[in-house]
């Protein structure tokens, strides 16, 4: 099981099995009231190979000067 914690205050939001989240989940922290948005993770090697890099700067923005 993996502990899912608030990005703002570190409070435990819930526990989940690996790959249990298949889509987008929004969880509101009981302690600090912030909304935490969680998405299913994918392996980093797949993620980098699927992204087009032409015309993008280091952060992924398409803004041109």
List keywords for this structure.
1 helix, 65 residues, 11% helix, single chain
Structure description:
- The protein has 65 residues and is an alpha+beta fold.
- It has a domain at 2-41.
- It is 11% helix and 26% strand.
- The protein has one helix and four strands, in the order ββββα.
- The chain has one helix at residues 44-50, and strands spanning 2-5, 12-16, 25-28, 35-38.
- The strands form two sheets. The chain has a two-stranded antiparallel ribbon with strand order 1-2. It has a two-stranded antiparallel sheet with strand order 3-4.
- β1 (2-5) and β2 form a beta hairpin.
- The longest helix is centred in the last third of the chain and has 7 residues, at 44-50.
- The chain is globular and about 25 Å long.
- It starts with a strand and ends in a 15-residue tail after the last helix.
- The relative contact order is 0.18.
- Mean pLDDT is 76; it is low at 44-51.
């Amino acid at each position: 099981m993996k502990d899912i914690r608030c990005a703002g205050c570190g409070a435990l939001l819930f526990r989940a099995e690996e790959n249990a989240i298949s889509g987008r989940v929004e969880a509101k922290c009981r302690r600090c009231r912030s909304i935490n948005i969680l998405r299913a993770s994918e392996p980093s090697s797949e993620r980098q190979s699927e992204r087009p890099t032409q015309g993008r700067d280091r952060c992924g923005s398409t803004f041109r000067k």
